[in-house]
TrEMBL record:
Protein name: proton-translocating NAD(P)(+) transhydrogenase
EC class name: translocase
TM spans (from-to): 6-26, 38-59, 71-92
MF annotations from Gene Ontology: NADP binding; proton-translocating NAD(P)+ transhydrogenase activity
Presence of keyword NADP: yes
Pfam family, one: PNTB_4TM
Membrane topology: Multi-pass membrane protein
Location relative to the cell: Cell inner membrane
UniProt-listed GO biological process terms: NADPH regeneration
PANTHER family on file: NAD(P) TRANSHYDROGENASE, PROTON-TRANSLOCATING NAD(P)(+) TRANSHYDROGENASE
Function: The transhydrogenation between NADH and NADP is coupled to respiration and ATP hydrolysis and functions as a proton pump across the membrane.
């Protein structure tokens, strides 16, 4: 228990910034109108694409003979980045379907 308290005391500024960014992010995202959702999702997909490229580079430079931190983080970055891009495209497609005229 003491180690946990020491950790929180040592990194209190970083924990405060993370908590503040979480609350700020929730507030900003909840007030985004539906019209702006598609361009924001496109920007998020671009950022996730950069994460995928970085993960591929990290996996390529990692030592494949041993299971090390670089290899594990690179694989997770590629998997989660790909899931985020695919999910973003699915959500963007559904949002764009809302703006199409319905056939009678």
């Amino acid at each position: 228990m003491d180690q946990i308290l020491i950790f929180f005391y040592t990194y209190k500024e970083a924990i405060f910034i993370i908590a503040l960014s979480i609350f700020l992010g929730i507030e900003v995202i909840s007030n985004v109108p539906a019209v702006l959702h598609t361009p924001l999702m496109s920007g998020a997909n671009a950022i996730s694409g950069v994460i995928i490229i970085g993960g591929i580079i990290l996996v390529g430079h990692a030592d494949a003979t041993t299971l090390n931190t670089e290899l594990i983080l690179g694989i997770f970055a590629v998997i989660f980045g790909t899931l985020n891009v695919v999910g973003g495209f699915v959500v963007t497609d559904r949002m764009l379907e809302m703006f199409k005229k319905k056939k009678k």
